[in-house]
Q: What sequence folds into this?
């Protein structure tokens, strides 16, 4: 049986609920029985994330009308120690397509016809593209500093784009106000647990492609959609006895907006109030991540280090990647800058992997 469970109070909800959080304010997680991960259960006829649907809570085949061929991104060596997963090779040029494909499959399954969501840009691009393909009416709220190219792309997919004067957190507040007033479905990548069913495939692919999990996994951490999905998948590999321990996970924040780093340095269970400063790493500039409690629990449970991207290293890192043939957006260049900083300050053993999760053409202002 598939059901939502509140991450705070444990109350259960059916997955076709139109509520986006529990009465107590807690966000949902998904409960369902999942078989042990096994290569034999991968549907190798599907060249998209739904090849892993044996480990997702979908019944039926609605995914066939949803998929745009997301996932299956190659892994390339940056040097002998560092691997890069080319997650900008996606239908809308960012890893968010993994989550959007799963989220929109759920929308189709429960008969939703009109959706609203807020985003720093990439998640909005993804949700707008999949909604367009499915004929679902879509509205996206973005903050005013969003790259114009991301806004044009949202509009090109036929979605209405509300550009909000204010930062990413204010934009999210405005969007939820609109959701409450309009009664439309909040197809949000942070709130809706189905999104993480898609981002889980990031790790499944690494495991299928390399046949091992690298010792050090660097993950960007804004709202944590890739972070949480990756932890769920790693826990799944662990409980399936395919890895014997969790890898060394390193979360990446911007030094201009690092609520999790602040919380961890003070051993807090919730993030403190911070004032985000402006950064080129717009994708992770999240001052009030809604799943902070859950994410901090993982950080303490798995002793996850947090590295802050030095702002002045973003452009040089972007250049280095471009000279290796990979043209990525600023937030993504920050992943390499963060890896290099961490490597300087720590004795890293074994292989590391970073994600190149957003394409460069999207962030030239
Ligand atoms: C390029 C890029 N990297 C990383 C992230 C961070 O993802 P999350 O906020 O889910 O942690 C985003 C989010 O928009 C992004 O666009
Ligand atoms: Zn609750």
A:
């Amino acid at each position: 049986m598939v059901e939502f469970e509140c991450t705070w109070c444990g109350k259960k909800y059916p997955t076709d609920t139109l509520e986006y959080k529990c009465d107590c304010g807690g966000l949902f997680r998904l409960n369902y029985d999942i078989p042990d991960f096994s290569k034999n259960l991968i549907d190798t006829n599907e060249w998209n994330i739904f090849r892993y649907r044996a480990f997702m809570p979908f019944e039926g085949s609605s995914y066939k009308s949803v998929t745009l061929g997301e996932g299956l991104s190659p892994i390339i060596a940056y040097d002998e120690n560092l691997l890069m997963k080319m997650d900008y090779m996606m239908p809308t040029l960012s890893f968010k397509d993994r989550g959007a494909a799963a989220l929109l499959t759920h929308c189709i399954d429960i008969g939703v016809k009109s959706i609203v969501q807020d985003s720093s840009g990439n998640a909005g691009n993804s949700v707008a593209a999949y909604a367009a393909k499915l004929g679902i009416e879509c509205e996206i709220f973005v903050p005013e500093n969003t790259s114009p190219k991301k806004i044009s792309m949202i509009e090109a997919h036929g979605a209405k784009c509300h550009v909000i004067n204010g930062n990413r957190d204010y934009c999210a507040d405005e969007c939820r106000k609109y959701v409450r007033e309009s009664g439309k479905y909040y197809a949000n990548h942070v709130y809706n647990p189905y999104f993480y069913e898609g981002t889980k495939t990031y790790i499944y692919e690494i495991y299928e492609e390399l046949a091992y999990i690298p010792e050090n996994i660097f993950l960007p951490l804004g709202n944590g959609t890739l972070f949480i999905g990756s932890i769920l998948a790693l826990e799944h590999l662990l409980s399936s006895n395919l890895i014997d321990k969790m890898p060394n996970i390193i979360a990446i924040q911007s030094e201009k907006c690092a609520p999790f780093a602040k919380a961890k340095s003070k051993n807090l269970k919730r993030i403190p109030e911070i004032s985000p400063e402006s950064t080129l790493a717009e994708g992770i500039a999240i001052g009030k991540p809604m799943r902070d409690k859950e994410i901090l629990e993982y950080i303490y449970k798995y002793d996850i280090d947090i590295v802050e991207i030095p702002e002045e290293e973003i452009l040089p890192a972007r250049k280095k990647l471009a000279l290796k043939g990979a043209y990525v957006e600023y937030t993504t260049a920050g992943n390499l800058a963060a890896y290099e900083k961490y490597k300087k300050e720590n004795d890293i053993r074994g292989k590391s992997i970073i994600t190149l999760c957003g394409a460069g053409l999207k962030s030239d202002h």
Notes: The first strand starts at residue 3 and ends at 6.
